[in-house]
Design goal:
Chain B: This is Peptide ABC transporter permease. Chain B: Pfam families: ABC_tran (PF00005), BPD_transp_1 (PF00528), oligo_HPY (PF08352), OppC_N (PF12911). Chain B: It is a peripheral membrane protein; Multi-pass membrane protein. The structure holds two protein chains of two kinds. By secondary structure, chain A is an alpha/beta fold. Chain A is built from ten helices and twelve strands. Chain A has two domains: 210 residues, 3-Layer(aba) Sandwich (Rossmann fold), CATH 3.40.50.300; 75 residues, no CATH class. In chain B, helix 6 runs antiparallel to helix 8 and helix 8 runs parallel beside helix 9. The longest helix of chain B is centred in the N-terminal third of the chain and has 37 residues. Chain B is elongated.
Chain lengths: 323, 628
Amino acid sequence: MSTALQITDLSKTFPVGKKLFGGATGAVKAVHPMSLSVQTGETLGIVGESGCGKSTLARMLVGLLPPTTGSIEIEGAALDNADPAAFGKRIQYVFQDPISSLNPRKTIRQIMDAPLKLLHGMDRAAREKRILEIFDSVNLRADFLDRYPHEFSGGQAQRIGIARALAAQARILILDEPVSALDVSVQAQVLNLLADLKREFGLTYLFISHDLAVVEAVSDRIAVLYFGSVVEEGRAEEIFAHPRHPYTKLLADSAPVVGRPLSDPEHGQAELPNPLDPPPGCAFAKRCPYASAQCRSAPPPLTEMGTDQRVACYHPLPAPEQV
Amino acid sequence: MSAFFKLLARNRLALGGLIVMGLVVALALITPLLPLADPDATDTANRFLPPLSDGYLLGTDGLGRDLLSRLLWGTRLSLAVGFAAALFAAVAGAAVGIIAGFYGGRTDNIIMRGVDMLMAFPYILLALAIVAALGPGLVNALIAVSVVNIPFFARNIRGITVGLAHKEFVDAAKLAGMSNPRIILSEILPNVVPVIVIAMSTTIGWMILETAGLSFLGLGSQPPQADLGSMLGEARSALITNPHTSVIPGIMILIIVMSINLLGDGVRDALDPRLKSGALSRPMAATRVERKERPAPETSTDAILSLDDLHTQFHVKDRIYKAVSGVSLSVKPGECLGVIGESGSGKSVTALSIMGLVASPPGIITAGAARLEGRDMLSARFGELRRLRGRRVAYIFQDPLATLHPLYKVGDQLIEAISCHRAISKSEGRKKAIELLKSVRIPNPEERIDIYPHEMSGGMRQRVGIAMALANDPDVIIADEPTTALDVTVQAQILSLLSDLRRERGLAIIFITHDFGVVAQLCDRVAVMYAGRIVEEGPTMEILRAPAHPYTSRLIACVPELGEGKRKLEAIPGLPPSVDNLPAGCAFADRCLKAQDSCTKGEIGLEGSGSRAVRCLFPEPGFAEETA
């Protein structure tokens, strides 16, 4: 298996506040240096709460934001978006809000034409044929092509967004909360479609979501983000069943599940650290029942624990007993 | 296009402006064809003839030139110059604005500071300076007027472009391989054109005035060529002795500018997308109620709040959207009723109808009753409804950032919520507000009371939203997706808070959500809505264990649950029917695997035994056994 996507020490810092001349007054570290890799044909799930840096990470991966430090390698070559036409063929992005990612003043045909014409230089007849093929594979009807985006429901619009990403024939798709704007019955349709497409075209996915159950249902491996850092990474079937990081456990315990009594695992109240003034140690220490002086002084490194699991914690929860 | 004219015609003044403007333009266009005297031919024997003189319909000016001819030729010239100047200013201003807005950063800074400098001069002074530099003449006046108006367009268009440049469809275009110039032309420009048209329609009159002003000063059209401004300028010396020479061009300027401005206002309104949906029309203070028959008197129950066969519709143009068609619900003190459904199922409209909060127009309650302790609130007068809103029945909305006023401190907003219903002193109000913040478990309430909503996290803001709902000790709280915008860890905190409050205060809660997990944890009973109706109702645990309606059971199957690993999910193919075109019989029939012919014929009642009810001819097997 080859590596489809390799990021090394990638980070992003946004300047905040502006002086009259020159520099910024402060900086927010949206993404702390992190390293991740995705194998070809794999789905890596990224899960975390709002403000954890997951969308910033995604936008860096598709070249919409320049990283502050670190490198991104796509299929063995460094990310290079100097030529938009070459770059678009290697990696594509599916947006969270399906409606606002479609230009309201263009027909679906015009939207679908753009990547085919600009990335692949197809002529009119070839484009028409290809669009119909793609529409067929995402279960959309050809008569949608001459309509405008506002005429579609969320689920249909998201399928159009996926169709547009497929048109580029990139083998890697970054899916940024692709179903969070959709109703559950439609959400399942789109998730199943994504699974079918992956099998059919041999795609690699980076699937970002705040919904643990959705991520677990589609991913091979999952990385949990908190405050811009990976706190735990492991196989999908393991990570929520046997979390080693206290934050992963908190997430898993907070998800409302039928049949589990209502509980507030934190008993009241917890707040995210201030991004302008991050704590010196582990960002989760303030909310963590196991936090020690060591946690508050230096951030724990991401270390291998068990098979194919990495945890950034000085006091990881015990591993499940070997059966 | 025809829709645009219909909207325009709705504004009578704009229609009048359009007609007058059309006449003036038509007259200007056919001027060369009319049998008019030479506008520049002087005839000193016939100086200052009054209007209606023989051979001179509008009289003559100081050099004996035919005023009618000069007026028409002058109007033609003034209109042409005005339109040309507006077009030039719009094109140049839009180009500058789009480039500044799209590229941002330093480009934006340099361009906009240049524009600011242009704006810093009084415009007429600037125009005079430009003409002075270029020399007098109509073309130079045109250039001056255009340049002076470029900043107006540039600023307007830049603002719109900045918003558009960060839209996701622009990112998508980048990833589709488009270069920046191409994105500007094919993605940004079509979205700014309406704004350019609106800005042009409202400034064209102004530009005609400015050109006339320059001509009046002798800097525009040069004699003997006539335009409206120069006609005025030449007549100035005879203003007292022969007023008609200045009044006639003056009236023409008035007519042109008035009609263009009225038309411009109409165009702006007609192009505003909000107007099409009726959102610009101010909603009434309470939803309109148009019931054909009085609701039947209530049968006595122990419910604190009950809905009886509620119908709420939206009348938009000639379409009727039946958002809620026949919903009956009731909730007892201390009880939590969940209303679950997908978007468009009518759950929010049901909730808003209770206190008449559905916007009218276009919303109308056409039948049914909403009773608070037996009293029908839909027939209550507005004054009474207002006393009850927030006092007895309070709402918690989905987006706390949108419900809290961004410019007031949270404490002041809490105090205001209390003082709406009873007089309260400042110190007492503050004490009560701190108490409320404490009751929703906000840490350091004494400090937090003095901060603004944007300084709080989403979870904290929603706590304030809940505190505000609790401010007047209501009996019923209607919570419309209060945790949907929140993270799971925060959601858990808010849900357990609501659950505790209900127990402590004996609150009745109607909890609207799309999440079965949330319903299962919080609600005693649940009603499932589909296409504006309740399809199933009963105790939460029983429904989750053995759903009776095929829709409920398949919807539950769709929800991925943690701990089940990677798998294929259940899905319900198709979409719910549009509520302006509901099928006969069961609305779910065309997505249902068990549908028979009988499902699509006639009404299907909500029937059941004991605490459960279902609107289905062929309920799921588990349910049939239980009730048998």
